[in-house]
Design goal:
Elements lengths: L5 E2 H12 L8 E12 L5 E7 L2 E7 L4 H6 L6 E11 L4 E10 L12 H13 L2 E13 L5 E6 L11 E5 L14 E11 L4 E5 L6 E5 L13 H8 L7 H6 L5 H11 L8 E11 L2 E10 L5 E8 L7 H14 L4 E6 L7 E6 L4 E5 L1 H8 L12 E7 L9 E5 L9 H10 L1 H14 L7 E5 L7 E5 L11 H18 L4 E4 L11 H21 L7 E6 L2 H13 L5 E4 L1
Parallel strand pairs: 1-7, 4-6, 9-11, 15-16, 19-24, 20-22, 20-23, 23-24
Antiparallel strand pairs: 2-3, 2-5, 3-4, 5-6, 7-8, 7-10, 8-9, 10-11, 10-12, 13-14, 14-15, 16-17, 17-18, 19-25, 21-22
Helix pairs in contact: 11-12, 12-13
Length: 567
């Protein structure tokens, strides 16, 4: 094949240049029934318009609030005016709405059918055959057997985020292995796929696709927080250490990390996890699932896909990523996680008999796997857990708040906990102030949990960091000890700690972390040795990435997993 093929960004620019000037694709009215309304985080409104079983995806941007308010509820008919809008970042098209009319106030111009508009777009593009070179960013196989390739630019200096999709029908077997990261030449003709509102290059012959080279190594990610990662980046090595990789936002890392921490819990002790698990769709078409949960024989029992979601639309990820893997894998169980909420996931079970996928909850998912939660009480042991999340959502008996000595409401964690706890906490704090005055650094007091999902809040006052020579370390250690003493006195069985003093009080996180973990570890071990009361479960909950990184490294230095028994 020739080597002067266009890059992906050149192809997408060509699509824009073809579509934008066409007067038949702008300022037109269409009508149909509204469905699938969804609001994005930036207040853009997406919906589907259906006319005689022909669908088109529509969008009303956030600068047109009045139009959004005029859109009727799902199931109602509406006429909308607008133009075809091309999203070159996703190889999709949308009908961008500029006016809305209800049936009782129809437009003066006669609306055209959705099918006529789609055919106009199809005819506009199909006159162009194109030759493109690109790197496979992702590939999947649809339930009907079509292989979809998402290509991005392969040029070293290319800064484009443009994507072009290519489709290989099930009747064509590529002459070489297709995998994520592979670079290919493709020759084909543009086509419109209304069900996906996508424009794609259709490949009609196996000879119209050829490899450029062997799949390259990934480009070096941006440097992480730790020195090891900085050195790897400086030496142009191709990966971060696993700590910075999973804790970073790179490659959906925060979502991947959350799923891995779930699968690494003690109840999954009979299983192992594998990243980038290879799944063969056909002998020459291979995909890689983000995470596979494997049984003792190394066979997958569940597949997890993690994704960054734009416009809060999970359906594309579930239908185009997770389900195709489940269709050809040995397991019927799937988990889909995305960054709209890294801890709120979709669990699926394939119903083979009825040829469908049923949504199940987390408990049903675990029941299908045959896992049993560990007993709540482990004799002479306390479970340490490391959580990347928000402490006000911790499922424990008590959370620790990083408080001020005056016990007046501060900022950061203090404000978050007290705002969520409400008036009941404020009244309890005021009683303590009237009774005891200030709370010196290193000390702690306890109140009700108020509106929080916990019974108690322990308000601990950490040291303000100066130069490390003003007994800050001793004060910080005393702070953790006093929290645990209060927990023992109140027979609190589970407690969650933040990284005390590392926010506005300026204690360097890399210095505060070993103090926190070693202090709590020694306290717990001593309590168990003398058969004294101590919480059975202790969480360290870190909201910020840098703090979580430090805690992960310290856990590993101590020889711990991210969930472990101490005693």
């Amino acid at each position: 094949m020739p080597t002067e093929f266009k890059n992906v960004s050149e192809i997408t620019q060509q699509v824009l240049d073809i579509v934008k000037p066409n007067p038949k694709l702008k300022d037109v009215w269409i009508q149909g029934k509204v469905s699938g309304i969804r609001q994005t985080q930036n207040n853009t409104l997406n919906f589907t318009l259906t006319d005689n079983n022909q669908k088109i995806q529509c969008v009303i941007f956030n600068d047109r609030e009045s139009l959004q308010e005029n859109l009727p509820e799902a199931g109602n008919n509406v006429s909308v005016k607008g133009e075809i809008y091309v999203n070159e970042k996703k190889s999709e098209y949308r009908f961008m709405v500029t006016d809305v009319k209800l049936p009782e106030d129809p437009p003066q111009s006669q609306p055209i059918s959705v099918n006529d508009l789609t055919e106009t777009l199809r005819n506009t593009l199909k006159t162009h055959s194109d030759e493109v070179q690109g790197e496979i960013e992702r590939l999947f196989v649809t339930p009907a057997g079509y292989t979809i390739l998402k290509l991005k630019d392969v040029t070293a200096d290319g800064q484009s985020n443009d994507i072009i999709e290519c489709v290989i029908p099930p009747t064509i077997e590529p002459p070489f292995s297709l995998e994520k990261g592979g670079k290919v030449y493709i020759k084909g003709q543009f086509g419109i796929f209304p069900d996906a509102s996508a424009y794609r290059i259709k490949i009609d012959d196996a000879n119209d696709i050829a490899p450029i080279a062997k799949p390259p190594k990934p480009a070096p990610p941006k440097p992480g927080k730790c020195q090891e990662c900085q050195e790897r980046y400086n030496n142009l090595q191709d990966q971060l250490c696993h700590i910075c990789y999973y804790a970073s936002l790179t490659y959906e890392g925060i979502v991947v990390g959350a799923v891995l921490r779930y699968f690494n819990a003690p109840k999954f002790a009979n299983f192992t996890t594998k990243r980038e698990h290879r799944i063969d769709f056909t002998p020459n078409i291979k995909g890689r699932a983000d995470i596979a949960l494997l049984n003792s024989k190394g066979n997958p029992v569940a597949i997890a896909e993690c994704k960054r979601i734009e416009d809060n639309n999970r359906d594309d990820g579930i239908n185009n990523q997770l389900k195709p893997y489940l269709n050809v894998s040995e397991t019927n169980l799937g988990l889909f996680a995305d960054d709209t909420d890294p801890y709120e996931w979709i669990f699926l079970k394939r119903n083979v008999e009825k040829a469908r996928y049923d949504k199940i909850n987390r408990s049903q998912f675990e029941e299908e796997l045959g896992v049993e939660p560990p007993s709540e009480i482990s004799p002479n042991k306390t479970r340490f857990e490391l959580i990347h999340g928000n402490i006000i959502e911790a499922e424990v008996d008590a959370v620790v708040n990083a408080a001020k000595a005056e016990l007046t409401k501060g900022s950061g964690i203090d404000a978050a906990i007290r705002d969520a706890g409400g008036e009941e906490i404020e009244r309890a704090i005021q009683e303590i102030i009237e009774r005891e005055g200030v709370c010196p650094p290193g000390r702690a007091v306890i109140t009700t949990g108020g509106n929080l999902p916990v019974r108690h809040v322990i308000h601990a006052v950490g040291p303000i960091y100066d130069d490390g020579e003003q007994h800050e370390a001793e004060t910080l250690a005393r702070c953790y000890k006093n929290c645990l003493k209060i927990a023992a006195e109140k027979e609190i069985r589970s407690i969650a700690f933040p990284a005390i003093s590392t926010g506005n009080y300026g204690y360097p996180i890399e210095k505060a972390t070993p103090i926190a973990l070693n202090t709590v570890k020694e306290f717990v071990e001593n309590a168990h040795q003398h058969n004294e009361m101590v919480p059975e479960r202790i969480q360290f909950v870190l909201l910020h990435e840098e703090a979580y990184n430090c805690y992960v490294k310290e856990f590993l230095k101590l020889g711990y997993g991210l969930s472990c028994l101490i005693g």
